[in-house]
Each structure stands twice: as C-alpha cells, then as structure tokens.
User: What shape does this take?
Amino acid sequence: MKNIRVMLVDDVPPVCQGLATMLRLATKNNNRKIEVVGEAQNGDEAIKQAQLLRPDVILIDLEMPILDGYKTTQFIKSQEPSVFIIILTIHGDSLARQRASQAGADFFIEKSAPLEELLQTILSFGTMREAV
Assistant: This one.
C-alpha cells in the first residue's frame, strides 16, 4: 500500500508541527502511513507547494494571510481536481461550510473534532484512491 501524501496549510506554525507529529504517530503501526510532505503558512505558499509536491491530501485552514482558505482551495482544485482537500478550521458555522463546499473542498472538519475523525477522513481517501 502506498503512503498517503499530506500537505498542511495553516498560518500558525505550531499547529502544523503538532498536526504533523500526531499524524505520523497515529499511523506509525498501521499498514497505511500518512506522510506529511509539506507545510505552508498562507494560501500563496500553499499553491506553490501543491504544484511542487503534488500531495494526495491537503489540510487547509480558512483564515490565513495573503490568500484565505476558500480562495486557496478554489485555485488548487481548478489546477488539480483530484487532490482531496479537507478544510480544518475553528469555524464550524453553516456559512463557512457552504463557502468551503462551493470553493471545492471535499470535506470539512472543525479543529475541535477528535483526531480519529481526521485520521479516518484521510485514510478513507486512501481507500477511495486504491479502488479506482
């Protein structure tokens, strides 16, 4: 089984670092590993990194400098529709969910959700990819 290549996009570096560590540890003993291949701190960096690294999954925060998560998602999806984009944010209201969906996000998770929910969402992408 191929590793699932994930890129993290959040303007708070400790959030990215913590997520990267948790994702690596959570799949350490599994057959399927989550490999964090890159991090970006704003939408502009995310677009450049996505083009360079070609991740399978991108976790994107909504509130970021330079280019927010909505516009970043929309641009990345227009360039690479097969990338699986998960919005990971503190904003769980219906308007944020609707805007994220319209931008092309595949999934929406609040940062307060259990890590297991995020893991299952990422791993489900891997299962879908292998089925194709």
About this structure: The chain has five helices and five strands. The domain at 4-131 is CATH 3.40.50.2300 (Rossmann fold). The chain has one domain: 4-131. The beta strands are 4-9, 34-40, 57-60, 84-89, 107-110.
